[in-house]
Amino acid sequence: MAYSDFTLIDLQVKFDLKHEVVDLFDKHQINPIAPSDFLQQQLSEAHKLPIKSEKSRSESLILPILMESRRINNDFFTVYSGDILVADRENGLSGECDYIITKDISSYYVNNPIITIAEAKKQDIELGVNQCSAQLYGAYTFNQQFNSSISKIYGCTTTGEVWKFISLENNVLQIDRNEYFLNEVDKILGVFQVIIDYYKVVLN
Q1: Verdict on whether the full-model pTM lies above 0.90
Q2: CB proximity list for 26: less than 8 A, separation 6 or greater
Q3: CATH architecture, range 3-202
């Protein structure tokens, strides 16, 4: 198996991973962040293009938002694109991740993952939730192998236009019942800021 092969039921049966649908963020926590002129221009130009493939959605819609959050936070984290995360090959926790965000900004290799992002294949958010959840458990397992102090991992699945967030802690996946949309990119940036602010506190 690979991350993309898992379902939530597989994760529950194989790893005793529970899941629940919740309001992942208090609405008062999320302070929308106005996108920079640079990001607005990038997204505007992207919408003039025939975005048909997953690769084009990733490059045109997803990565610019991640890099904007990185700029806002003075390069607090690193973004890895398309890297292989091997956590437990024997149990299928291995495969390519669309994006892995890590706290370690100086390593050439993935180290201390804090957020995993799965592009929703076939524009299907529910399929994306499955893959992202598997990647979250893979990232958690990876961190445990290196005695990392990171006990809570965040994830996101996105079509580029729609964004849904997930967290994993104490073997419980919390899937946000809310979705965020590209036409309100300020809210997406606000959610990422809540997550990054959390890590700035717990990893300080």
Answers
A1: yes
A2: none
A3: Alpha-Beta Complex (3.90)
